[in-house]
Write a structure and sequence with these properties.
The chain has 259 residues and is of the alpha+beta class. It folds into 2 domains: 5-122, 2,3-Dihydroxybiphenyl 1,2-Dioxygenase, domain 1 (Roll), CATH 3.10.180.10; 142-256, 2,3-Dihydroxybiphenyl 1,2-Dioxygenase, domain 1. Helix content is 19%, strand content 44%. It is built from 5 helices and 16 strands.
């Protein structure tokens, strides 16, 4: 089995405002995680399924360069060994491996093009059952992962394929924007990779959340102070997408099977 994204985390300057925004737009519910120490951590759930977390950016984090945004976690059975592989493949370690109480062992790294992500060996609660597989139209889950690759999509795919066992599923020609590579694992499409556009300041992963209809979601996000960046438009496979910015300055994206 390949290693995949399985957890998604929002860094925000205003926790309560972010909860209110995404709760209205996506329909997520929230619960504070106990035993988190000095930094409160809020769990995001889609129905009964935990899908991610939110925490508040501190002044110290902002002074160190942190900004509002979403980061993804890729599963790793052995975080320390995988960090060594990232270094050997030209990636950079941004936070050395460490244990997080009640959660597992994590590290933050970046690929050779500069896109950051976490590695994590989760520590499920004793006796916990694994969550059921995610359905293709399950509302509130992160269903598509998109990399704007600073080192180019071909080199980026080689990096991730060697580290995590991902497969190249299809290449789509996008004219002046180059190739859009669909990737997956274990026979399931997971996302796409493309060369980083010149107008983007840095390489980054983007994550698409499934909603029940794209027009209704756009109406909700603009009503609550969000900003549409691109879309809505239809993509191959007949899904609809929109890329947006939340009121706190974090970019996010939505997808739906219907307009």
């Amino acid at each position: 089995m390949a290693d995949k994204f399985f957890w998604y985390e929002l860094m925000t300057p205003d926790l309560e405002a972010s909860k209110a925004f995404y709760g209205h737009v996506v329909g997520w519910t929230f619960a504070e995680m106990g035993g988190g120490g000095d930094m409160p951590y809020t769990i995001i759930s889609a129905g009964e399924r935990p899908v991610g977390g939110i925490f508040t950016l501190t002044d110290e984090m902002c002074e160190g360069g942190a900004r509002p945004g979403w980061l993804g976690y890729i599963h790793a059975e052995d975080v320390d060994a995988k960090v060594a592989e990232v270094k050997a493949a030209g990636g950079v370690v941004q936070m050395e491996p460490r244990d997080v109480p009640l959660a597992g062992r994590i590290a933050m790294v970046a690929d050779p093009g500069g896109a950051p992500f976490y590695l994590m060996a989760p520590q499920p609660p004793e006796g916990a059952e694994p969550p059921p597989p995610i359905g293709p139209t399950e509302v509130g889950v992160f269903s598509w992962h998109e990399l704007y690759a600073g080192q180019g999509q071909a080199a980026a795919f080689d990096f991730y394929a060697k580290l995590f066992g991902w497969d190249s599923m299809m290449e789509m020609e996008m004219g002046p924007m180059g190739i859009y590579r669909l990737f997956g694992a274990d026979g399931v499409h997971l996302g796409g990779m493309m060369d980083k556009p010149a107008n983007l300041p840095c390489s980054v992963w983007g994550f698409y959340t499934t909603v029940d209809g794209i027009d209704g979601a756009v109406a909700r996000l603009t009503e609550k102070g969000g900003q549409v960046l691109t879309g809505p438009h239809q993509v191959p496979g007949d899904s609809w997408i929109v890329q947006a910015m939340d009121p706190q300055g974090a970019a996010f994206a939505l997808t739906a099977a219907t307009r």
